[in-house]
Amino acid sequence: MKKKSRTKNQSLFARIQSFLDSQDDRLTEEMERDEEPEPPHESKLPVWGQTVEGLASGEIRFFDKIYPFAAFLLALFIIAVLLVTASRLPRFGGDSNPALNEVTERYLEDGMEETGAVNLVTGIILDYRAFDTLGESHVLFTAAVAVLVLLFDAATEKQDLLENRDYDLAGDTVFREGVRFLLPVILLFGVYVVLNGHLSPGGGFSGGAILGAGLILHSLGYGFAATEKLVNRKSYGALTVCSLCFYSLSKAYSFFTGANHLPSIITSGVPGRIFSAGLILPLNICVGIVVACTMYGFFSLYKRGRI
Predict the structure, then answer these.
(1) Please, are residues 183 and 214 in contact by the beta-carbon 8 Å criterion?
(2) Can you tell me the distance from the alpha carbon of 186 to that of 200, in angstroms, rounded to the nearest whole number?
(3) Residue extents of the structural domains in the chain
């Protein structure tokens, strides 16, 4: 009886051992199969897709190697062209300089009468050469859009508390009280420079820079959340686009009428008065808005990734 029981126990033990061995073999086979590299498969992407895939995986590095040399050669070419162009310009103040006899004389003798601006510099950049200034304003707007595309981070929308702690000085009582005292003076002076650009030195660019500095100072002293009540992404886009559109529409007729554009219902007024110089005053305001928004926009984007 004992012999039969012993034989039965040995048989049960053998079956258990056999089951465990089979499990070990199965696990070993699975581990070896996982370690084996997958067989290469042919890509079904088109040629351009394979090229992009190759660039992403680091297989194509020719462009990375040649880029520094190409950039260096391009910079040398541009420098050479500029130097040759500058060497062939007429001598400054020389009798052979056509600008001395035509453009300069026209600006100095007839500038105030034709533009109504006491500040002839403003009369030149916003009347005679208004399209140059329009291009500069569009350059600022394009630069702001490019920085917005590169630095915008939607995740920072939920990090206002972290932003305020890291990027402004609202917790510093001395700094905040200093901002409270200086900010009205800075903004008022910026508005004065913008509005008197046709009467005295100043204008949209310098006044806009002062206003932009005031907005930056306000964001540092009171936090971005407080400044957003005045300048946020929607108001930034609306103010900038409306200013550029007004500037473009108000001077577009010059394309069809030439440099000495046709007389309009907007007169130059009496030189020396605030409401004079035709469209120069509203154009100065538009330029000031674009410059101020661009300055604050750059600061906000570099600090927190959004306007």
Answers:
(1) yes
(2) 18
(3) 52-90, 117-304
